[in-house]
Amino acid sequence: MDYKMFSAFNRLAGRYSLLDMLMILISNKVHYMFIFVLISMLFGNRSHKKVAYSSISSAIVTLFISFVIKLFSFKYRPFVKHRVGILLPSKTDSSFPSKHTLLVFAIATSIFLRERVLGSILLAISTLTGFSRIWVGHHYPSDIIGSAFISSMTGIIMNKTFKNNAS
Fold it and tell me: Is 151 within 8 Å of 106 (Cβ atoms)?
């Protein structure tokens, strides 16, 4: 099922050069936009600083969770097990979780919980980032969905932690 869903999207890779370029751009560069948003928030008012600290904490905790998961489990990337369209070179480390997806969803969720409009935009971009990782041939849909879930939960927990510490 996971491979069938992966194939439905990935088989389009390489057929539409403009879309391929967009997916490569999103996959490789969108995290810079998230960094810019966080830096901007760090220079904002007190409320924005809290959101930025919560988001950064979520990203760090999410990276730690990813590290622990990868210590105990390994899932081959799609291009290792199957003949797929791969648009970017990649490491052959574990496919799950997707670090790109983890980081953008952790930040977007943390921001969404306090700044709905900006957070909604970032969540949409996070979804595109996850989709781009399937498009370029690096991850299965379950990797993206699982990573989005883990990082969203981390963002919610860190947001509650920061709210309780502020009280």
Answer: yes
